[in-house]
Structure formats: C-alpha cells, structure tokens
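Query structure, 150 tokens:
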C-alpha cells in the first residue's frame, strides 16, 4: 500500500499531466447567457451547429446593458450571432484565439494561391460596411470592381 507521500506525488503528477493536455488543446470556449461557443480545429460550435471558419467574417464585443459582462458578436455569412452576458476576460481570450486562427487560415490561403480572391475582397468590404467603416456607395463600388475580375 502506498504511503501518503507517494499518493500525494501521484496526484500532483496527474494534475500536471492534465494541465499540459489542456494547455496544448486546440479548443477554446466562452459562455454567455444560455449559450456556449467552442472553438475547435474546424470552426466554432454553438449547440449542435458547427460554423466553419471560412464562413466567419469577424468577431468583436459590444457593451451590454447587463452588469454581468459584454455582448459577443460573431459575424457569419448570412447574419450575426449575439451572445449576451459574456465575461470580458473570457471574451477577449476567445476573440484573440479566433482572430489568430482566421489569420493563420488566411495566410495559408495566400501561400497556396499566391493572391487573395475577388470574393475575399468583397467579403472584407462587406465586413467594413457592417461595422460602419464604409458607406453603401463605397461598398457597391468595391463590389463591382471585384465582380468584374471573376
């Protein structure tokens, strides 16, 4: 039968091993009012749905009316997903992780193709329109310019 000292050492080893696994994990999660977002290698999972990274146009926080946290907004093709009452620190970690993954995928895409596609440029312009950095006229001008290249 192991001594208390040996048991303590075994437990510490198990805890350290578990921590290493969690630190090297490709998964990051954030929880808000009634929802949990989990970022994995293929995209972001919300409930039973998986949103592939290629459909994600942007992610940011917005001040929420509640005292519990912020509102996390995930811009995807076809709309925006809003999660309320998200802890600010959790939201920031999640945004950084998602942004880094999107940047990594974009860099891989550029390396593989050598250039950014016209559809990517239109998508970026739409994102800028959605956040108010472009007006409707500027967006239409950019969109028409890149549609001619297709």
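Result returned for the query:
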């Amino acid at each position: 039968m192991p001594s208390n000292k040996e048991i303590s050492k075994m437990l510490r080893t198990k805890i350290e091993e578990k921590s290493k696994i969690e630190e090297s994990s490709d998964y990051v999660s954030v929880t808000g009012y009634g929802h949990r977002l989990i970022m994995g290698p293929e995209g972001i999972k919300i409930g039973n749905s998986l949103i592939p990274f290629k459909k994600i146009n942007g992610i940011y926080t917005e001040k929420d009316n509640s005292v519990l946290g912020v509102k996390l907004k995930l811009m995807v093709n076809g709309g925006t997903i809003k999660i309320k009452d998200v802890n600010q620190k959790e939201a920031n970690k999640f945004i950084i992780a998602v942004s880094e993954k999107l940047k990594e995928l974009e860099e891989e895409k550029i390396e593989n193709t050598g250039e950014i596609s016209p559809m990517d440029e239109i998508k970026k312009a739409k994102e800028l329109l959605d956040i108010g950095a472009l007006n409707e006229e500027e967006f239409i001008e950019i969109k028409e310019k890149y549609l001619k290249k297709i």
